[in-house]
Amino acid sequence: MTNPSSVGIVSAQKAVFDQPIALSSGVTLPRYELMYETYGTLNENRTNAILICHALSGHHHVAGRYEETDKNPGWWDNMVGPGKPIDTNRFFVIGLNNLGGCHGSTGPSSIDPETGTPYGSRFPLVLVRDWVETQARLADMLGIHQFAAIIGGSLGGMQALRWTITYPQRVRHALVIASAPRLTAQNIAFNDVARQAILTDPDFHGGDFYAHNTVPRRGLRLARMLGHITYLSDDGMGEKFGRLLRSGEYRYSYDVEFEIESYLRYQGDKFSDIFDANTYLLMTKALDYFDPARHYGGDLATALKEALAKFLVVSFTSDWRFAPERSREIVKALLDARKHVSYAEIESAHGHDAFLMEDAPYFNIMRAYLNRIAAEVNA
Questions:
Q1: Per-residue pLDDT, 300
Q2: Where does the chain show beta strands of DSSP type E?
Q3: Residue 352 is among the residues annotated as catalytic for this protein
Q4: What was the pLDDT predicted at 1?
Q5: How, if at all, do strands 28-29 and 21-22 pair?
Q6: I need a surface site. Which of 45, 205, 233, 317 has the fewest CB within 10 A?
Q7: Catalytic one of 154, 315, 318, 348
Q8: Tens digit of pLDDT for each residue in 185-242?
Q9: Among residues 12, 199, 219, 218, which one has the least CA distance to residue 97?
Q10: Would you say 353 is a known binding-site residue?
């Protein structure tokens, strides 16, 4: 039976860009491809489009399923669909896999047309501003000149913020969720430890492991385990796992004994099967480099002065990776720049991952804000 609140069976599309793109790193890619999906219908005036920007391990498959038998839907299926907060009966929603990704867009595992082998270590670093440039080119291809909203959580929220600075005329609303204006030293440190786990894996081969028919699985597994710890809260882990032992008693070994150990190893193993190590390195570096105030004397309010969008900023009380005070920094800068901003701090035990969870207060706020946007663009 078809679920009336689901976008149903979906398919991915590939956009090919033959014009070169000059990246912030100084490298120029002669051509590239982006994988994307769309849900809903673009209205006659092309004013109801919403762009969903993904976080570190996200991709273009935001909602729906590829086949009825798929066990899991898109990564934000609880948020996007008919009658859901991002209502596909009223909005035309776009999800894409960013440049440098490993789910169909051009990235380190893609074939370099000049060599006929995977880019590997030759693939350049990209910044959030580079992603925004490629997203704007995709919008041009789709005939969308202004987005009703650009929405993202975590690294996705950074992209939404960057859009309002780089293309102020093209964004009516920016929803910045569980994000930050730049990483703290602690966050950069976590990312570096995760990268070192990959870089020092003997199977990494300097990023060219494809040629050796291997995968730096141990490093990627450890990187994901470390990252996953930072996405959860202490209370959330305590409530779900506590100090539960798998066998009910100590075994006096270094094998898996506690349920939390089993969970983290499962997450690490699963991730190492589906994600590319070079993409993980690239994404974490993009996080580290993000700092829109850097070219404005460190003043975020000055960086945001040209923004024309209205903003919704959302944080979660138990998120210690991107704590509420980081969202409040964004809010303060927006107020100092005399921008229209709404702010919500949601009580949650889910940690950083709360932006992915179906929490009633969070969803009610999203629904109310998006209802206002729908009334604007469909008037």
A1: 98
A2: 13-17, 21-22, 28-29, 32-39, 49-53, 80-81, 86-87, 92-96, 111-112, 117-118, 149-153, 173-177, 310-316, 341-346
A3: yes
A4: 45
A5: antiparallel
A6: 45
A7: 154
A8: 999 999 999 999 999 999 999 999 999 999 999 999 999 999 999 999 988 888 888 8
A9: 12
A10: yes
The reply to whether 24 belongs to the active site is: no
| Active-site hit among 319, 327, 350, 359 | 319
pLDDT value at 54 more than 60: yes
Q: Distance (Å, rounded) from C-alpha 242 to C-alpha 53?
A: 34
34: amino acid identity, one letter = L
Contacts of 372 (CB under 8 A, 6+ apart): none
Tell me the two tokens of residue 222. 């450890």
Q: What percentage of the chain reaches a pLDDT higher than 90?
A: 89
Burial class (CB in 10 A: 0-12, 13-18, 19+), 220: buried
Indicate whether 182 pLDDT > 80: yes
- Let me know how long the chain is: 379
Which structure tokens are listed for 121? Answer: 């270590």
Which tokens in the block code for residue 29?
Answer: 């890619």
Helix (H, G, I), strand (E, B) or coil at 64: coil
- Tell me, what's the pLDDT at 5? 79
Can you spell out the DSSP letters for 280-341? HHHHHHHHHH--TTGGGTT-HHHHTTT---EEEEEEETT--SS-HHHHHHHHHHHHHTT--E
Fill in the DSSP letter of residue 46: S
- Judge whether 294 is annotated as a binding position: no
The confidence band for 243, taking pLDDT boundaries of 50, 70 and 90, is confident
Q: Of 60, 61, 103, 352, which residue is the catalytic one?
A: 352
Phi, psi angles (nearest 5°) of residue 204: -75, -35
